[in-house]
Amino acid sequence: MSNRQSESAGVVKCSADGVVVIPVEVREVLGIKNKEAFLRLNDISVAKVVNEDDDTKLSDVEEENA
Protein backbone atom coordinates (compact mmCIF):
# COMPACT_ATOMS: atom_id res chain seq x y z
CA MET A 1 0.00 0.00 0.00
CA SER A 2 1.71 3.12 -1.17
CA ASN A 3 -0.99 5.54 -0.03
CA ARG A 4 -0.35 7.42 3.20
CA GLN A 5 -2.72 6.21 5.91
CA SER A 6 -5.06 8.68 7.53
CA GLU A 7 -5.30 8.70 11.30
CA SER A 8 -8.97 8.47 12.13
CA ALA A 9 -11.24 6.87 14.69
CA GLY A 10 -13.34 5.13 12.02
CA VAL A 11 -13.19 3.50 8.62
CA VAL A 12 -12.19 6.24 6.22
CA LYS A 13 -12.91 4.59 2.88
CA CYS A 14 -14.87 1.57 1.62
CA SER A 15 -14.90 0.59 -2.05
CA ALA A 16 -17.76 -1.09 -3.92
CA ASP A 17 -16.01 -4.47 -3.65
CA GLY A 18 -15.65 -4.20 0.13
CA VAL A 19 -12.06 -2.99 0.44
CA VAL A 20 -11.72 -0.71 3.45
CA VAL A 21 -9.03 1.54 4.85
CA ILE A 22 -8.55 0.72 8.52
CA PRO A 23 -7.42 3.45 10.92
CA VAL A 24 -3.77 3.44 11.99
CA GLU A 25 -4.77 2.89 15.63
CA VAL A 26 -6.65 -0.30 14.74
CA ARG A 27 -3.89 -1.54 12.42
CA GLU A 28 -1.39 -1.10 15.26
CA VAL A 29 -3.53 -3.17 17.66
CA LEU A 30 -3.87 -5.91 15.02
CA GLY A 31 -0.11 -5.94 14.44
CA ILE A 32 -0.41 -4.90 10.79
CA LYS A 33 0.68 -1.27 10.95
CA ASN A 34 2.57 -0.29 7.77
CA LYS A 35 1.74 -3.66 6.16
CA GLU A 36 -0.69 -4.72 3.46
CA ALA A 37 -3.05 -7.33 4.89
CA PHE A 38 -6.24 -9.24 4.20
CA LEU A 39 -8.61 -9.54 7.15
CA ARG A 40 -11.37 -12.09 7.54
CA LEU A 41 -14.29 -10.82 9.59
CA ASN A 42 -16.64 -13.54 10.78
CA ASP A 43 -17.95 -12.69 14.22
CA ILE A 44 -17.88 -9.02 15.06
CA SER A 45 -18.65 -7.83 18.56
CA VAL A 46 -18.23 -4.66 20.56
CA ALA A 47 -15.83 -5.03 23.49
CA LYS A 48 -16.69 -1.68 25.01
CA VAL A 49 -18.40 1.49 23.86
CA VAL A 50 -16.31 4.55 24.62
CA ASN A 51 -17.79 8.03 24.44
CA GLU A 52 -16.09 10.29 21.92
CA ASP A 53 -15.76 12.94 24.64
CA ASP A 54 -13.96 10.42 26.86
CA ASP A 55 -10.17 10.26 26.78
CA THR A 56 -10.09 6.53 27.60
CA LYS A 57 -7.16 4.74 26.00
CA LEU A 58 -6.90 1.12 24.83
CA SER A 59 -4.56 0.34 27.74
CA ASP A 60 -7.26 1.54 30.18
CA VAL A 61 -9.80 -0.84 28.65
CA GLU A 62 -7.32 -3.74 28.68
CA GLU A 63 -6.64 -3.14 32.39
CA GLU A 64 -10.39 -3.18 33.12
CA ASN A 65 -10.80 -6.48 31.26
CA ALA A 66 -7.74 -8.15 32.85
UniProtKB/TrEMBL annotation:
SUPFAM superfamilies membership: AbrB/MazE/MraZ-like
InterPro entries documented for this protein: SpoVT-AbrB_sf (IPR037914)
Descriptive protein name: SpoVT-AbrB domain-containing protein
